[in-house]
UniProtKB/TrEMBL annotation:
<protein>
    <recommendedName>
        <fullName>Response regulatory domain-containing protein</fullName>
    </recommendedName>
</protein>
<dbReference type="InterPro" id="IPR011006">
    <property type="entry name" value="CheY-like_superfamily"/>
</dbReference>
Length: 377
């Protein structure tokens, strides 16, 4: 017996087909000791959606067409309409089970959204197992529990005791912002305890706002990549005519990357080349370069803070906004750019002179290391 029983809801308006799918799925998982399922069906599309909305299912097997003697356009798309409603209501994997797969092929998002033909009823268990194996449902459950725990604690310990102060002249949206800010701070604190992150942790994908901000990653004409360097306050106050961008090129074109790959191709250990690539590019927080790890549409890129350009707003608006760097990576980029552009060269001190002066200042009876000297009796 497993710890979790997966609740599967079949929404199919023909009771005999729904019952057949129920038997197929139940029998298949009876042979799978790793997954327990509870399979139910609903023959009314609206009633089925209501059950999903109430959280009575983990996965949904969904017909597309409502079978009636004289089907209307709404009947032909009844299941797809339910799917769109589910997307608005909650996150749950959906397997379309339909004689009209071409009507929903554009919704495929494997393994979260799959399409199985009506004639291929034996493929339903496999599609369900793939959705379960993705851990999508488990992950969203864990996230909801974590978010609920943080917000509930903050409500009881801060908002509740000071309710009148927080609600004075504030609407629910303002309170939501307070809670979300608290949630973001707690999650940031948890993340900062670790010095390693997944590439996805660097990006808001796609950007959360139509207003540009520092750290926005833009694509020009589908190929050239740029990153916004103009401070956020300029965008908020609309105090700009030009926007400053830094070019981001593919890591494969960077000389330190090619030096490393060339050495590797020659059969060398390439330890020195790797250390230079790692120090000056991949982990750089100072100097000319900053690395952007590949994620989704973004390839491995290197921001070049020496290769910058100013563009007018109309040029900026023509660029595709792909993602945004999250905090603190966006702020770190601005600091790095400021330090790189504003650096001032100064002569090095004469180290030998300093060393002699420090040695001469050692107290009598001590060596330069501060250890008492041995005086013969």
């Amino acid at each position: 017996m497993t710890e979790k029983t997966w609740r599967i809801l079949i929404i199919e308006d023909q009771a005999d087909l729904a019952a057949a799918a129920q038997r197929e799925i139940t029998d298949a998982f009876d042979l799978n000791p790793a997954i327990d399922v509870d399979v139910q069906f609903e023959t009314d599309f609206d009633a089925g959606f209501a059950r999903v909305q109430r959280g009575e299912s983990d996965l949904v097997v969904l017909d597309v067409r409502r079978d009636t003697p004289n089907p209307t356009t709404a009947d032909k798309t009844a299941g797809h309409a339910v799917f769109l409603d589910i997307k608005e209501a909650r996150f749950a994997p959906v397997i379309f089970w339909t004689a009209l797969p071409e009507n929903v092929d554009n919704e495929i998002m494997l393994p979260i959204v799959a399409v199985v033909k009506k004639d291929d009823i034996d493929k339903l268990p496999g599609a369900i197992e793939a959705a379960i194996a993705s851990r999508a449902v488990d992950t969203i459950d864990d996230i909801e529990k974590q978010v609920a725990a943080v917000l509930t604690k903050h409500m009881w310990t801060e908002l509740g005791p000071h309710w009148s102060e927080y609600t004075d002249g504030a609407d629910s949206a303002t309170l939501a912002q307070v809670l979300i800010s608290r949630l973001a701070r707690v999650l940031d604190e948890d993340r900062e305890h670790s010095f390693t992150t997944h590439p996805s942790h660097r990006y808001v994908y796609p950007p959360a706002s139509e207003i540009r901000s520092p750290g926005d990653i833009l694509r020009e004409r589908g190929q050239d990549w740029w990153v916004v360097l103009t401070p956020a306050c300029d965008f908020e106050q609309k105090k700009f005519e030009y926007v400053l961008l830094a070019h981001a090129g593919p890591i494969e074109a960077h000389r330190k990357y090619t030096a490393w790959t060339s050495a590797k191709a020659q059969g060398k250990a390439a330890k020195g080349e790797w250390n230079e690539l790692r120090k000056d590019v991949l982990k750089a927080t100072q100097g000319r370069y900053q690395y952007l790890p590949a994620f989704r549409d973004i390839p491995d890129l290197v921001i070049d803070l020496e290769n910058v350009r100013s563009v007018k707003v109309d040029v900026l608006e023509a660029m595709e906004a792909v993602a945004s760097l999250v905090s603190p990576f966006s702020e770190a980029l601005l600091v790095q750019h400021s330090q790189f552009r504003g650096r001032i060269g100064v002569p090095d001190l004469d180290e030998d002179l300093i060393k002699r002066r420090l040695e001469d200042s050692v107290l009598p009876g001590q060596t330069a290391t501060g250890t008492p000297s041995v005086v013969p009796l």
